[in-house]
Design a protein that fits this description.
Number of strands: 2
Strand content: under 5%
Structural class: mainly alpha
Shape: elongated
Keywords: Membrane, Transmembrane, Transmembrane helix
Radius of gyration: 21 Å
Length: 178
């Protein structure tokens, strides 16, 4: 049963992106991948500090100690959260924390653990909520930073970029001749 749930959490959520506007989905893909990196690190920490055990029998074959939900459900959920709440920080924070609370205190113990995806060891479900909740402002700040990077690039015209590139290569050639 756990193997089936694991594959569903890995593949099925991606179909939920189909009705969304692709331009906005692409806008929030970097922050979703950043979130997956954060969770990958958290799962590595969990293995070292024995916070929980991911059951290999209930995971997809190429993810040994990381739940498949990180690379499916989590990425898609992060896109949805940004899609519907960004840039309103307080709305983003409150909606995320409510969903995180439900995930940590209801879904984790009564669904994920019951079907055998993982077993909590030295971390409580409330500790899981705190860990998840800490990531929310981090990813919001990351998305704001990403937006600033793209805005700066958008302000520079193509002609200016080409001129800078040409100037840099011309200056480099002049320096090499000396």
């Amino acid at each position: 049963m756990g193997q089936i749930v694991s594959w569903i959490l890995f593949l099925a959520p991606w179909f939920l992106l189909l009705p969304l506007e692709w331009k906005r989905v692409k806008r929030f893909m970097p922050v979703s991948l950043f979130m997956a990196v954060i969770y990958t690190i958290l799962f590595q920490m969990a293995e070292v500090w024995n916070w929980w055990d991911v059951h290999e029998t209930s995971n997809v074959f190429f993810l040994t100690n990381i739940s498949s939900f990180v690379y499916g459900f989590l990425i898609v959920t992060t896109i949805y959260m940004f899609y519907f709440t960004y840039p309103n920080f307080w709305l983003f924070l409150i909606v995320n924390w409510v969903i995180d609370l439900i995930q940590a205190l209801i879904i984790s113990p009564f669904i994920f653990q019951k079907v055998g995806l993982y077993t909590m060891n030295s971390m409580s479900n409330f500790g899981l909520f705190i860990m998840i909740a800490i990531t929310v402002p981090i990813i919001y700040l990351y998305q704001r930073w990403q937006e600033n990077v793209f805005e700066e690039k958008a302000e520079v015209s193509l002609a200016e970029l080409l001129f800078k590139r040409f100037s840099q290569s011309k200056n480099a050639a002049t320096r090499r001749q000396r």
